[in-house]
From TrEMBL:
The keyword Aminoacyl-tRNA synthetase is assigned to this record: no
Domain Peptidase M20 dimerisation: 160-277
Catalytic activity of the protein: N-succinyl-(2S,6S)-2,6-diaminopimelate + H2O = (2S,6S)-2,6-diaminopimelate + succinate
Gene Ontology biological process terms from the UniProt entry: lysine biosynthetic process via diaminopimelate
EC number: 3.5.1.18
Gene3D superfamilies assigned to the protein according to its UniProt record, in alphabetical order: 3.30.70.360, Zn peptidases
Native species: Acidianus hospitalis
Protein name according to UniProt: Probable succinyl-diaminopimelate desuccinylase
Pfam families noted in UniProt: M20_dimer, Peptidase_M20
Family: Belongs to the peptidase M20A family.
Amino acid sequence: MLIELTKKLISFKTYNDNELHECALFIKDYLENQGFKAEIKEYVKGYPVVISSSGKGEPLMLNGHFDVVPPGEGWSSDPFVPKVVDDKIYGRGATDMKAGLAVLMETYVSMADKLDYPLLFTAVPDEETGGKRGSKFLAEEFSPFFVIIGEPTCSERINIGEKGLLQIKIKERGKSAHGSTPSLGDNSILKLIDDILILEKEINDFSVSIPRELEDAVNNVKEIDEKIFDDVIKITFNPGVIKGGTKVNVVPDYAEVEIDMRIPPGITSREVLEKIRVKGEIEIINSSEPNYTSLPFFLGLKPFITPYATDGRYFRLKGIPTIVYGPGELNKLHSPDEYVRISDINMTFEKLKKILRNLVPKFL
């Protein structure tokens, strides 16, 4: 049933609004057909969140998302017609995170009456666009004693934390003139280039000390992909969008750049922002602090830190212990011919049930 459920979830094109609602209704109906009460709630109109509780009391929350990024080009087959080849299920969202959602759904159904605490199942429609219409509200409404998010980690590892986020826009204004007489103008693009170079140097000069309790988790990143190790332990700097000018023969009087920075544990996004000394106007687009959950056990699973953000930040920043654990490899995220291994799905399902049996709320 787990594999068929994964395939069914993949078949929904949940990068468009209509199929977000169809998928949410399917999840709700599925849980109700298994004997659980479920509801669809829209904290923000047009964004359906599925919620189901197995009982009263302080719960453990199982959280996942059913939205996906658009498929893009380069697929060998229809990304929304799941294809099984040997041990792999291909399709958009197979790894991120339709398989993980299927595991959470089946875990909820199979374990709800076998634990000394209630489970709270939640499925959100907007993780890929920031989680502010789903998990952000869930973190404000509910107070679970623990949260498990089904994003891909591979069945052998758990994500216990993530880098913070600082996305800013730098704006420069100048004075327009004819391109043949630039001395009569003030080129905003050249001013913006200076800002970018200054900021890059400032970021590279930062010294960050990773908390000692995270050293093992950080070092485990090397086993996943040694190429991204530096991206985990340092502040990363990526000018992603730049705009400016109207014509090639006109001195531009306005230019802007959007810059994405990821902040490792050991320093805060606020500290980074306070040390930025560019001349242009700074606008904050998005910001969150590094966050992690430090726990001493988990059945031999290897902890690690991710360079990107998950909805886990909303719960951790409220002081709720949160881990990310689900089937799928990180290098398959958002890629053409995305796939998840069937063996990984089954292994994650079994280990997740074991995690729930071993969690004792009063000892966390």
